[in-house]
Amino acid sequence: MAALLAILMFALFITLDWALSRRRERREAEAAQTLPATPVADPALEAEPELEPVFVAGYEMPERLHYHRGHTWVRLTGPDTAVVGVDDFGRRLLGTAHAIELPEEGDYVFQGGQGARIQTTGRAADLVAPIAGEVVARNEELEDEPELVTKDPYRRGWLYRLRSPHLAMHVRNLLSGSLARRWMEDARERLDHNLMAMSGSVLADGGEPAQDFGDHVEFEDWKGLVEGFLLTQGYERAAS
Q: Are 71 and 92 in contact (CB under 8 A)?
């Protein structure tokens, strides 16, 4: 009887192990399907992708991207590489960019850690890195034209490219699809409540936030917005 019970328990353990292995393999296969089949090798080609203009709550939000809650985005370019940038909401909050500080090639950035610094009129703020990885390319155009970040954030204004062997795992922590849309709608509602107490010049005609509303917010108010929406305390007054 004891021998039969031992055999049954062994069979149960084998069955559970097989089921867990199958489940793990299925999850890995689903994650791999989110990556493009053909990687883009030339960073110059990554600068101007064909992104269909989609707007959510008044902000451009291309559907092919994955979004960090700190208002940075990721575009997958291969099984272990991705391009990073700031979203439309984030670039409006920052204001017009005058200078960009990017990590150097070979640097390693951590998901949620400092990924870049953007200087605007009289102030500067950090952007969080949406994923972790090694920096393998920087957008050198931004050295001469930093305003591209705020004029064309999803195309010519991209920041840098990362390589990570754990890219699929990091992307699972980001937002896309309906979750991303609901998050942006909530961000817009929160922003409106904040701006109602500030200068009227922050709002354009019709109650819409101005394209560069960050330039028109007093520094102390701006700090609160940066902490609440960009999820960073890396900010300071800077030379104009």
A: no
61, 182 Cβ separation under 8 angstroms: no
CATH number of the structural domain spanning residue 63: 2.40.50.100
Helices (H), 40-140: 43-46, 88-94
Render pLDDT for 17-38 as a digit per residue (tens, 0 to 9): 545 445 544 544 444 444 443 3
- Could you give the residue ranges of the DSSP H alpha helices within the chain? 2-32, 43-46, 88-94, 141-144, 148-151, 167-171, 177-195, 219-225
Domain count, the chain: 1
pLDDT 10s digits, 52-70: 779 999 999 998 999 999 9
Domain membership flag for residue 39: no
Cα 154 from Cα 158, distance rounded (Å): 6
The total of other beta-carbon atoms located within 10 Å of residue 114's CB is: 15
Structure tokens at 129: 């890195």
